[in-house]
Amino acid sequence: MAIGFCLFLLVLAAFPQVRSGDAEALLSLKASIDPLGVLQWQQGIDVCKWEGVKQCLNGRVMKLVVEGFNLSGRLNGESLNQLDQLRVLSFKENSLSGEIPQLAGLVNLKSLFLNDNRFSGGIPAGLSALHRLKVVVLSGNGLSGPIPRSLLELSRLYVLYLQDNQLSGGVPPFSQNTLRFFNVSNNLLSGEIPKTAVLVRFNSSSFVGNADLCGEQIQKPCILSPSSSPSMAPSKNLGHRKRNKKLVLIIVSSVGGFALLCTATVLLIVCLRKRRKGKEGRDKVVARGGDEGARSGVGRDDSGRASKQGSLSWDQGGDGVGVLAFLGPGDQLMSYSMEDLLKASAETLGRGTMGSTYKAVMESGYIVTVKRLKESRYPRMEEFRRHIEILGRLRHPNLVPLRAYFHAKEERLLVYDYFPNGSLFSLVHGTKSAGGSKPLHWTSCLKIAEDLAAALVHIHQNPGLTHGNLKATNVLLGSDFESCLTDYGLTPLRNPDSHEEPGASSLFYRAPECRDPRKPVTQEADVYSYGVLLLELLTGKTPFQDLVEEHGSDIPKWVRSVREETTESGDEHSSGNEGSEEKLNALLNIAMACVCVAVGSRPAMKDVVRMIREARAEAQTQVSSNSSDHSPGRWSDTVQSLTREDHSSI
């Protein structure tokens, strides 16, 4: 008993040391980067309230964003590495100089922004040791030397921006399937750009300004140097010239004949199109396998049976080809066009009240998800474009990014990243062969709950913007099985005069005040849907009835009874573990607050995030440090059983 009490006192004594530790590290860092005293950091004030400290947990700094302060010193690596709870570090748009220090102590770092400074020297090869690192932005500096091949070891790398430096050598053969944004333009790079399945995604905009680079991506062939080919005698060169002249004459004649043939073919095609327009009045949406297959979203095989495989094809409007517009700041770097989408093979993934969703595999092997909206005339084009551009600017690790949109007179398409690991619905409910639905382990529930809450907070930062259709099938699993929202913000594109009703599987996710499809969905309604989804995680039960109306204030009792019925003996839920019961109560309290019938009594999503992070912080003191990423129980069992597609084809 005495030993336990002593340990308790030691833990209590440790907390203020942790808080002051980050403060002292930041003050030491300030001394090296802020000779002019711009930053108002000082002892005696809670470090979490210091300028640039954007997020804390238990007194530890998790997000440090000090941008545009005209800081002119050098980064002190020793001080910086003491901030081992940092997830986001940004010193962009300052005047920091010197070499970028090794950052081996930042073991939890996910995003690093050091762009638009005056850093020199090489890129630290030690970045590869930061296994959680997803975003690396070092552009706009004076960095030199090669791009470290060790960056290939960053398995979660999502953004790599190295443009506008003085980097030399070749481009490493990046093969991380997670890499979506990439730019090495305006450097001194040379050699052939590797033809990996990842790098072929990016066009010349990612490589421009490197005079000695060559390769398919920039449409510049790599020519062998003279030293690599055998020398020729003058007499032989003369013979070659004569043969070359004859060859040129043959080629010119062939090209002329081919050009005449092409001209005749084009004229014939134009005549046939005019005749077809006269018969049909306008172009129709046609897919391979017949008109009926196109309208239903599937193709037809030779026997007339339905097939999920077909080609994406759509009405291109009276003026011919419509417009494929890319949205985000780096999306225009993606090297596919409307013609590539036209040629893509398509597989139906699902249909809903907003439209049909397809997996589109382009000839290059690159895969995207295409959502074909039902309403091609509502809202008006300018309103549609304005709203889609707002959605396209949303970028968050837990949002499936909207990359591009296509619009023509009779067609509207949205293009998203493809997520091959399936949906949260599949994770929770599994398959009949895998035993069907079961509750998730509470650590998994906490991780998923935080992912989704953080994404909703990001959406709700835009006044009036909502997800509008939150449910388990609209949560996709990323490359690290993080939870990512899709189909967000689409309800304003639905015609209010449409009489189509949502199915039971969608209706009871919706708040009671928004079940009439003619009523707009509010951010408070998103909170209600989030609460229902959280109860689904805890019980493994799809909401086919109104949970509040069915169980009322007895929801916690119902959740516990379901978990006791469906968990095996020896599981943490039935073992009487006090810590597990505490976390379950925390999740239940959050869910109950969210599904409150009184709209004004529901918490804002930012408050939900805070409550979940507090619960997770307490949980991490009871389980291993890896549990936040690879939770035990149902999560890991289900992940192992999921059918994962071969990423090498992407």
Describe the fold and architecture.
The chain has 650 residues and is an alpha/beta fold. It has 3 domains: 202 residues, Leucine-rich repeat, LRR (right-handed beta-alpha superhelix) (Alpha-Beta Horseshoe); 127 residues, Phosphorylase Kinase, domain 1 (2-Layer Sandwich), CATH 3.30.200.20; 212 residues, Transferase(Phosphotransferase) domain 1 (Transferase(Phosphotransferase), domain 1), CATH 1.10.510.10. Helix content is 32%, strand content 15%. A hairpin with a 3-residue loop joins strand 18 and strand 19. The termini are far apart.
Brief digest:
The chain has helices spanning 2-33, 77-80, 234-280, 291-296, 338-343, 381-392, 424-429, 442-460, 504-507, 523-539, 547-551, 555-566, 578-594, 605-620, 634-641; strands at residues 53-57, 60-65, 88-90, 97-99, 111-113, 118-120, 135-137, 144-145, 159-161, 166-169, 181-183, 188-192, 212-214, 299-300, 306-307, 309-311, 323-326, 345-351, 355-361, 367-373, 402-408, 411-417, 475-477, 483-485. The chain is an alpha/beta fold and 650 residues long. It folds into three domains: 16-217, Leucine-rich repeat, LRR (right-handed beta-alpha superhelix) (Alpha-Beta Horseshoe); 291-417, Phosphorylase Kinase, domain 1, CATH 3.30.200.20; 424-495 and 502-641, Transferase(Phosphotransferase) domain 1 (Transferase(Phosphotransferase), domain 1, Orthogonal Bundle), CATH 1.10.510.10.
